[in-house]
Amino acid sequence: MKKEKRKKGESLLLKKVHTYEVLGREKKKLEELCQEYIDFLSNVKTERESVEFTLEVLKSNGYQEMGYPKGYFVYKNKFLAFWQAGKHPVTEGLRIIASHIDTPRLDLKLHPLYEDTSMAFFKTHYYGGIKKYHWVAIPLALHGVVVKKDGTKVKIVLGEKEGEPVLTICDLLPHLARKVQSTKKLSEAIVGEKLCLLAGGTPEKNKDNKEDVFKKRVLSLLNEAYGIREEDFTCAELFAVPAGRAREVGIDRAFIGGYGQDDRINAFLSLKASLEVCEPAYTNLIIFMDREEIGSEGNTAAKSRILEKLIYFLLEKESVDTNPVNFFKVMENAKALSADVTAGIDPNYIEVHDKLNDARMGYGIAVSRYTGHGGKYMASEAHVEFLAWLLGEWDKEKVLYQVCSMGKVDEGGGGTVAKYLAVYGMDVVDVGPPLLSMHSPFEVAHKGDIYMTYKAFKVFLKA
């Protein structure tokens, strides 16, 4: 085997470079991108809102519903795919970026509203992996839709505008918490059934009926503002999410903090990158999926077969027989990025991190060759041939990246949608920016990683 000769003075060691060491003139573009991202993160807090925002952008850029060569497809208002045809036929492969647009939150229960001790509350059920203590004693907004029996759809966003009231979950004062909370495990101190939103404290004026007057007052105000009744909650998707805007974090403004960065950060960046790629060599397919945070179950998630419909559609548009042979030819030649975040090293909790292998904040897009937990259980693992090709393409365009894992072997792990794409035979690897405080109401990303992820997506879609 022929050995590569090392250039004089070239180190054999892997050198880790911080993004701000190499940005140069790109810093201005980084700041412009991040300011746009802050606006997106501040206004888009649910799956439906993610789809609505993206559709508006796509339409303004000439994409048409089930159009070709540029088109989009929406399913149940929570799954979105859009594409741009390439110079090569689809049977020679696609460039796919898949991310998820659901985020841990609190869902209102089917019959949420009740009153107790002259106060009205909403009962909730948490969605996805949360630390329950994160969600108490913070301002919360209500986002979602109510669908009435006549088919009328009512959109609700309450608690985001200046002067609007917010909701909150009250915590127990430390003076009374010694036995109820302080002596318990952290996971048991806040009980899920007690994550109830404070919704009102004013009685409805009614001389004849003194029952449920605080509950009735809340219902009267909701009916006045949105035309809904108590029975409408059973056909509603109403989520309690952190109220307020995303913010720059740090005296030097190096970070962005806000709710829902896992994984809407990758949805936003893949949208931005795709719009800047003209006449790609291979057809670009960007997919936003739902329900990843609860195992990708349901017909708007990665486990559904809705992706197959899109592939057959693309075959049909290129006048290729829509048969299983051609379908799998497309899939086997496809290259995909499962765009999801990973854990950034937090030096305050270094005991769970592997400093040699985990992602560092500010060192570029994180590439997770494998996921899973324990003995790589339930893992998706990229083939090294594909990984070498991808990293080579990024090297050419000076994209900073870090190949990493997530935490020490026995400390846990995680999964993404990659394994549901891999079942079709395509090459796929997990990539995305590292986060601090992941799955909290205020996740933190580094601006340098955001920019390098955007740049990496753009290079991939053009390759």
Instruction: State the strand order across the main sheet.
Output: 1-2-3-13-4-14-20-16-18
- Classified in CATH, the superfamily of the largest domain is Zn peptidases
Extended strand count: 22
Distinct helical segment count: 11
**How would you describe the oligomerization state of the chains in this entry?**
single chain
CATH class categorisation of the largest domain: Alpha Beta
Protein model, in words:
This protein is globular. The longest helix has 17 residues, at 27-43. It is built from eleven helices and 22 strands. The strands form four sheets. It has a nine-stranded mixed sheet, with helices on both faces. It has two domains: 19-103 and 259-462, Aminopeptidase (3-Layer(aba) Sandwich); 105-242, Aminopeptidase i, Domain 2. With 463 residues, the protein is of the alpha/beta class. The two termini are 29 Å apart. A hairpin with a 2-residue loop joins strand 5 and strand 6.
Features:
11 helices; Aminopeptidase; single chain; Aminopeptidase i, Domain 2; alpha/beta; six-stranded antiparallel β-sheet
How is this fold's topology laid out?
Blueprint: H1 27-43, H2 47-60, E1 64-65, E2 70-75, E3 79-84, E4 94-100, E5 105-116, E6 119-127, E7 140-147, E8 153-158, H3 178-182, H4 186-189, E9 197-200, H5 213-226, E10 236-242, E11 247-249, E12 255-258, H6 261-275, E13 283-289, H7 306-317, H8 324-333, E14 335-339, E15 342-343, E16 365-368, E17 372-373, H9 384-396, E18 401-404, E19 413-414, H10 418-422, E20 427-432, E21 434-436, E22 443-446, H11 447-462
Parallel strand pairs: 1-2, 4-13, 4-14, 14-20, 15-21, 16-18
Antiparallel strand pairs: 2-3, 3-13, 5-6, 5-10, 6-9, 7-8, 7-10, 11-12, 12-22, 16-20, 17-19, 21-22
